[in-house]
């Protein structure tokens, strides 16, 4: 027996003893295994079969009402030194965290089955991929990991060959919010999660491994683990450019990744290919470009708002072999959420629908589905070497200030634009919704180490001989004085992607401004849109005084990290501020 196998076996044995599980089941990822689990869950009521005529092999799962989103206040990064986790993370000393968690795990699987779930994040034969094993007592987690990762025998074989793997230990426990913690030990490549059965808290391959642990590893090994979608944009000449985009949770990654071009663009031959919708691992290749893989094999997407109008590709892939979590039901047992036609009969908690109780679907209701069911799924998503990235896009949900699109002058400025990201909060995490918060690179909840070191890591990619992607910032969410979104968004976002790729190919000039490069009037095509007269002007308005205030706050944020913050980033910001201030004063005097 290889030593890896024995270390895996040893760990499983130790956990089985600690948790006092009734039985241990090694998962091989077969269809028979999944069918057996579904049968078990249908019998226990953990799954409800949906209408077999409209939704064959589709199921509904209802979470405990107090367990419907990620819990950032209960999520910890446990490095030896607190400063390595940084002010951007909650921290606990590893020894204290292990003691706390092991006390919770002690005897917690009595009467339950312990599932051993080996998985590979990324194509099974890719050097960019990394493996892990999740131990869980939740069959829901096993089913979801089966859809979201390359799970089972092949992954186990790679682990036995390779040696290192991330150890993730999970129990739903009693689903008591007072006994719930998500702990990360990046220096040990391990995760302990207790008391939640929900998505990002429980499917440990996703946010816990592929972002928090992987970002830490990536820094040491010279790559990047990011909260980004990856799409291929094919132009009428048949050439495909790949774009990676970071938007915070519930800010449009899945929608952009599956975009269907507006009618006129379709006729010209434009097409979007989906490589990933949530996570991107990228590394400089021998040619100096960044090459990216999607470590996931499925989609765990936000259901509400998904419709034939906003995301037809997603809707179409959800009518078979899918799991729905916390959606409503129609009278004939179809899944229902706000944004779909028809009427709900039951809400996400199984109560007869009553608008007085709020929406029928929980705002963070999700679907889980294998990626291959997506009509726009890219053949390149399985490529071991990944895809070359031409453009990196940052974006947030901002009702004012941020223009529709902005291009960075160079890599350092691009890193600054990413670091300066802010977004209004959404239902993807528990807490108030719609509050502006800083969310650098959409990684605030997911970076497994000190943001100051993270920004330095990003800056370090600018080396002689590299050809880094161009960097952009977008905002689909700017609102007019009527309180409505100005930009139509969704499919029409292609118009903005077209401009970006035009910039990459040297087809368009841009307008240099104090905050970055903006499109020249007319370069973003608006034919076929019915926009209010001044819409484009409003979308690109630059208010120097408000930018100065924004960047003053950003400067204070950077300063809050102290000495560790790279001077290069601070200098970049200060150089911009030095020009903004006089411009703001000048404008004030002119208006004055
Ligand atoms: N106005 C507007 N809303 C959008 C646009 N794209 C997405 N949305 C809305 O944003 C919400 C979330 O979109 P998703 O694409 O699921 O977000 P995500 O970034 O993939 O979310 P996570 O899975 O949580 O990481 C949905 O309610 C969408 O309808 C857009 O271009 N304009
Ligand atoms: O992690 C989750 O639960 C879902 C998700 O993609 C996010 O919140 O960004
Ligand atoms: Mn996400």
What would you note in describing this structure?
The protein is an alpha/beta fold. It has 4 domains: 3-47 and 65-222, Phosphoenolpyruvate Carboxykinase, domain 1, CATH 3.40.449.10; 225-296 and 377-542, Phosphoenolpyruvate Carboxykinase, domain 3; 299-371, Phosphoenolpyruvate Carboxykinase, domain 2 (Beta Complex); 547-590, no CATH class. Helix content is 30%, strand content 22%. The chain contains 17 helices and 29 strands. Strands 1, 4, 5, 6, 7, 8, 9, 10 and 11 form a 9-stranded mixed sheet that branches. Strands 12, 13, 14, 15, 16, 17, 23, 24 and 27 form a 9-stranded mixed sheet that branches. The longest helix is centred in the last third of the chain and has 25 residues, at 567-591. It is globular, with a radius of gyration of 24 Å. The chain starts with a helix and ends with a helix. The model has no long low-confidence stretch (mean pLDDT 96). Residues 247, 249-255, 277-278, 301-302, 305, 310, 428, 476-477, 485, 489-490, 493 line the site of guanosine-5'-triphosphate.
SSE class: alpha/beta
Strand content of the residues, in percent?
Answer: 15-25%
Averaged pLDDT, please? 96
Proportion in helices? 25-40%
**In CATH, what is the class of the largest domain?**
Alpha Beta
Bound molecules: guanosine-5'-triphosphate, oxaloacetate ion, manganese (II) ion
State the separation between the terminal residues, measured CA to CA: 80 Å
* Broad shape: globular
Write down how many β-strands occur, each being a DSSP E stretch of 2 or more residues: 29
Query: Spans of 5+ residues with little confidence (pLDDT < 50)?
Result: none
- The CATH topology of the largest domain turns out to be Phosphoenolpyruvate Carboxykinase, domain 3
Second-tier CATH architecture of the largest domain: Alpha-Beta Complex
Helical stretch count?
17
The tally of domains stands at 4
Rg, alpha carbons: 24 Å
Largest sheet, strands/sense/barrel: 9 strands, mixed
